Batch of 3 targets.
Target 1
Amino acid sequence: MAHNQLELLKQRRFLPFFLTQAFGAFNDNVYRQAIIGLLFYLGVSDEQRTLYTNLAPALFILPYFLFSATAGQIAEKLEKHKLIRITTAMEIAIMSLAAVGFLTQSLPVLLVALFGTGLQSTLFGPVKYSILPSVLKPEELTGGNGLVEMGTSISILAGMIFGGLIFTLAGTHGPVVAATAIVLLAITGNLVSRMIPRADAGEPDLAINWNPVPESVKIMRMTRRQPAVRNAVLGVSWFWFVGTVLTSQLPGYAEDNLGGGPTLYIFALALFSIGTGVGSMLCERLSARTVEIGLVPLGAFGMTAFMVDLYFARTGAATVAGLDVAGFVGQPGAWRVMVDLVGIGVFAGFFVVPLFALIQSRSPKNELSRVIAGMNIQNAAFIVSAAVLGVVVQRYLHWTIPQVFLGLAVANALVAIWIFTLVPEFLMRFMSWVLVRALYRLRVQGVERIPDEGAALVVCNHVSYMDALILSASIPRPVRFVMYYKIFNIPVMSWIFRTAKAIPIAGARENPEIMRRAFEEIEAALADGQIVGIFPEGALTKDGEIAKFKSGVEHILEKQPVPVIPMALRGMWTSMWSHRDSRMARMRVPRRFRAQVEVVAAAPVDGAAASAESLEAQVRALRGDAA
């Protein structure tokens, strides 16, 4: 197991796949930029360049609408490592055709090959993201997705730069150099893909429906079965919408508002791309190696804040022209623009990486490729909508580019609020993430032992009023905690508990009706395949020691003998909201700011054989002396 995401780059189960997808993204953009270079090399008219500018993106994205449904089924049926080799072999054939187009300087051939690259990307897309849960452990999923997003962002940028320089540096040899480069890159990608280890098919017995229309409807329904997955898919599509609007405006923004040209546009794009890469890489550290969807609201509102500031940074036209990068950096206010572009990228990484990880972790393994395919159809629709909207607001509403950025910022905030209203789990996780990270330095061990699917019962010692939030921030799957009803009703915190669907409980003598309803909800939740968390001591510890586990846990397991995961909290006795030094539940200042707290999980125990006594012994052993 990799202890951090960078260690994944040293392991065969991840590195060949990472390099394969990076080579693919790099080559696609080398090819597209080289076509633009060829147009200038040939000295074609403005009308022909305009034709390419409008036709090329449509040809590339059209296969996503036509073939995503088929691609999702193929990715589900075939072994994933074999499909990647097939798609990279396709790339060799497509780039060979493109090489003929460069050598003969034939724009129609190049456009046919461009459609082919779109088809190849359509086939590769579902397996690109569905292979990660097959080769990575749950605690590696966020880091792996962060690396993939970072690699994609940097590869796109590097490909644009390299492809744009081919005709500039090679001169009359440009067509030969372009043809050679794209074929060699495709061959390299295929050779690297042959080192990807075996990754089994998700549904090898799947009967493929070759009719794309009904199958597209079917896979779109798959993306909507679970509210969290449905809105994560919507969030990813919105990320592509924002990215398309933003990056499509950068060429004009660099010229009209920053006073530069193509070089300054590439510099601005580089700032955004590097920011996205950095944000993607930071997700693992910020999430403590779990699928932390609490980062999604942070990313959404961070993107909005920096886009609003980008509007105010340059609201009018530039007073100078022809600036290179060095000349721009020396201009007043240039650093503010640069920070805004990087900031948008960083928070975009915070936004999208946890969404990918959530889709991968919450979708059934035998449907994941098709869910990704459905997401790709929706992504394509959002990209087209973004391109059309950008033209409409500028040509017909006469918005300036800074006004487009401001409108995008407002729309981003509204869409984010709408998504978080539909699925409050996003915002709840964000609030719990902020609270826990602000008060503690959290260290997590063994949470990968919690089953990815199916019902389970989590049992843990009970030290403070923050215990449920800390465990929620540590466990990648949603947990329905059973908690004392008076804690459940604490102002402000109660909203978080209700959103998390916590189950309030009372003692049999205190309120038998609340107790009866609690056990009914627990039984129903476990029957539905959910995770339920309980504190079998029945109350906060008054002396820091673990009290005797009550028989309620046995009553639960008698009706639903699901796997039990013993867990322990360490270091919480000296924290806020515990009974230390007082029998009164009152807030105190901890001994040191952000004291370290540990969450430790043991291997699942057979629920049919578990008892309150045996579970108590395991939790005591897990906690040790670290009260």
Target 2
Amino acid sequence: MDKLLRWRALVGGRALTGVVDGPDGAVRIRCDAPAGTIQAITAILPWEMGKDERAFLNGYQTWTYCPECGKRDKIRGLAHVPKPLLDKYAFDRYGDYHFVDYPNKRGLFHGFSWCYFRRGERFCLIASLDERPGYTIFRYDANRGLLAIERDCAGVEHPGGTLHAFDLYVAEGTETEVFDGWFAAMGVKPRTGKKLAGYSSWYNRYQDITQEAISSDLAGCKTLLSPGDLFQVDDGWEPQVGDWLEPDSEKFPRGMKSVAEEIHDAGFLAGLWLAPFVCETDSNLYREHPDWLLKVNGQPWKCGGNWSGFYALDIDLPAVRDYLRGVFDRVLDQWGFDLVKLDFLYGAAPFGKKTESRAGRMIRAMELLREWCGDKLILGCGVPVMPAFGLVDYCRVSCDVGLDWDDVWYMRLFHRERVSTKQAIGNTIFRRQLNGRAWLSDPDVFFLREENLRLTAEQKRKLAQVNALLGGVLLTSDDPAGYSPTAREQYRTLQELSRAENIHVDTNRGLCVTYTIGGREFRLSLA
């Protein structure tokens, strides 16, 4: 790469500068720095986008919408949202809004951990090799032709000595070449190569689940799913979010161990949903342990408006870690679940501290989850993306799908992490490179049912085919007992599609995917 990367660091009031040549491969910028507080670490890379060139800058967490952008595109923050709504629903807490500014101007966009510029089939990838010292934030100004790179580590105390300014991988080539090279340079491999198919209770029943409802859906799944598929009980089994040691006694009077046993008796893997790093205001945990909440400027940190409003737990507290260790022991060892879907994980690390960056805290939280879950399967969700690399078995790469195409008009005015089938499909496409490299990707569920749904037949087709081709998790929330013969045939076709190989996505002219099955090549238009 014939560009020059100019960098600057400000540590303890002392400015450190330099120029580093940027060849293909690892670019590791180190320098000696005095002890003191890091104020800023930045770098500038000249990059003029061509007329037909596209840029991708990865969004903060798995729900954050992040398509490829052209020179005149922009990403919108929350400046237009009235403050009373922000205060009530905490829309600014789902993403990076509380620590990254949004200029809301054409030609200005930002992202985390990696970005690429694409000209036809040629990619230039610029990616972080290590986020523990701080998130690598990319800001592109198409108007000036400049890519600014920042370490998100302001306020961290540097002890003196070697400063890890940047750890970057820079390469040009085909999509496969640059992404294979990046993951090889990081030494990250997926924990499993086994794809998941099956069922989730969420997108039909939502929180309205009971032991009887789960048994009914399980009976329906036995008519279609294969032995070893996943049957996952989602949100609604717990009394309140944060209270995980016992189920809602009215909904599940026989307990969750009996649920896991019933799933196993049907021949399926048993999965259970939790949000371990947060609790809602209606929970016993919130009322009884206010000292367990993460405090920012002396106040508990609200993470969003779901349920009765929910708050972050402080993972630095031994009592919090002991509680969560006990939760996973009960869910996995005593109740016998095989997989946990762990949601709203971003709540663990909205901030760093003097001894640890925000990203370092998030990585530490994910390592705790891996330790507590042992060899059991983790499906991550609502998590900053790169801190989960290699630590979860499966991971969401999109926002939640909805029962319609793009939600109601006023929700489209809010945050980048909102529910949207349209945006979920986009993220699955533009984060496709993670599948089989960082983990097996979860693109969220597909639908074949006719009832309780407002998607057109074409929208359902596109969602299902993208999920089958570009994901490693193929779940539905339909009750297969109600499937028509046509729907059952569609399901079998999707299973075959999920076994496709040599998948190549062409986004130059609409959206076209080529792939092979059984040695035969196929071409599918998803435009």
Target 3
Amino acid sequence: MDTVAPLTGPSELVERELLDLFARRSWRVPLAVMFAAVLIATLAWGKAPHGLTLGWVLAVALTLALRAAVLWRLPHLERWSLKLRLRLVMLMYGLSGVAYAGSFALWPYLGDLERAVQSMFVLAVCAGGVVAQVGYLPVFTAYLLPLFLTMGVYWVEILATPGKPWWRGAAGVMALLLSTYGVLMLALARDTYRLYLQNFDTRRELSVALERAEAANRAKTRFLASASHDLRQPMHTLTLFSAALSMRPLDERTRLIAQQMNTALQALGTQLDALLDVSKLDAGVVAVKPVAFPLAQLLRRVADELEPLARRKGLQLVVGALPAEDGFTDPVLLERVLRNLLDNALKYTVQGSVRLDLRSTATGLVLAIADTGPGIPPDERERVFEEFYQLGNAERDHRQGLGLGLSIVRRLAGLLQLDLAMRSELGQGTEFTLHIPRASEAPASAARATAAEAEAPAVRGLHVLVVDDEDSVRQGMRTLLEGMGCQVSIATGTAALAEDLAAGRPDIVLADFRLRGDDDGIAAVRCARQRWPGVAALLISGDTAPARLREADAAGLRLLHKPVAVDQLMRAIVEEVTRDTDAAPAHVSAA
């Protein structure tokens, strides 16, 4: 296992960061220093000559401006060595120290009290330098020495001045304190720089750990995508043949076997779809299409579909009063969120009920899913939203899914910009709430979803061109589509499609994304559209890698993932065939 070597001195990385740090602070630190200079000048105003006072303030301002300009440029002067640039930093701070030490030119004109106050300001500026320069001793010493030496000379001069014995005693104490204070500040600077180096080591180790975690996450995504593809290919074939088998006349026992096969395939397909949802969200290709739609109608439909599952578990699925108000969001993605939350509640509730409510509030509509399950411990309430984490499923019972439901819920809620909240009590249950905008508060141009959009005419009579390099998939597609009354043509890839000049124009092309060799479904669709401009097309793939999803999205092609449910396939075929020709992604054929 790789380790990060600790830093014990100013390595090149540290020196570069020091230059960046001085550059970032180049314009902020001088403001405080200049403020202290103005206060010292105020003390001397009316006592020292105005020209001397203003001249000193101007010298400090010009020196600080020069220092800021040089420090700001140093990180970008790569042609100069780091050592040289750090020496320039020392020079700039040394000049600043000399300019500030010039305040003691006002010393002869000040009274005893003003001198003490002036010394306090100078000491405060020195103390601030520890933080501003992170205790880097070469720079801090260059800044500190001119100030301390000049101040020390003036205080020692008081010791040698006859008269005022009490003040000479105070000056002696002050000189002793200055010496002690200087030593302490040097020690503080050294400790500050040591902490800075330790913090640098820690941040570097964290950065390396973060890079490793991100690399592991990318490897996980690639592995899941690859594994998902390898599983989806035979799953898709099984689904096609199983659906075709169910359409044939069967005896009762064989029909029961076919139904059980379909149930098992649907369960596996649901788990693969959860992995696909994560891949789509990682790829950033999930499009949000907000419309105004009857929210209560959606909730009742989903509840009716899940009610048999609740009844089999001996649970009550209660639907509260649903106000007849339209919501404004993406109904497809919201339904995914709702199904995940209800499925989760039904899965973990052993007895009692799951309740679905919709409340109208002053700020919008609040959708609530509450259960009488075991509740979630306080220390687990954040972890349940992590990927592949399941509460109370140490045995990894496959019937409880993969632990992706709530992770997908949170990410979809964020994508929809819906506030998601969770309240849970041990032994009492859990409630999730979603805040959904009203349609009345949506933009005037917002679309409205209608039930007619979901109605799909039959696919009977359509000419479908299937492009796939797997013989089993081609035969499964042919068996299924011909059983539904479609005319089916077959091609094994782009080359075969280009050579078969006898084939008539199809109504739609169903192309597998990954074909043999360097061939792919996008190339096949381009070939088909060069031959039959504007022909409808769908990509079908078992590859869930984010890069593949982005490729399909960039090509403007709709992508279905294996195994494709029969009703989903039929609905997608009808939607693409009936799509307005002007809306077809013409740029695919022009590529």
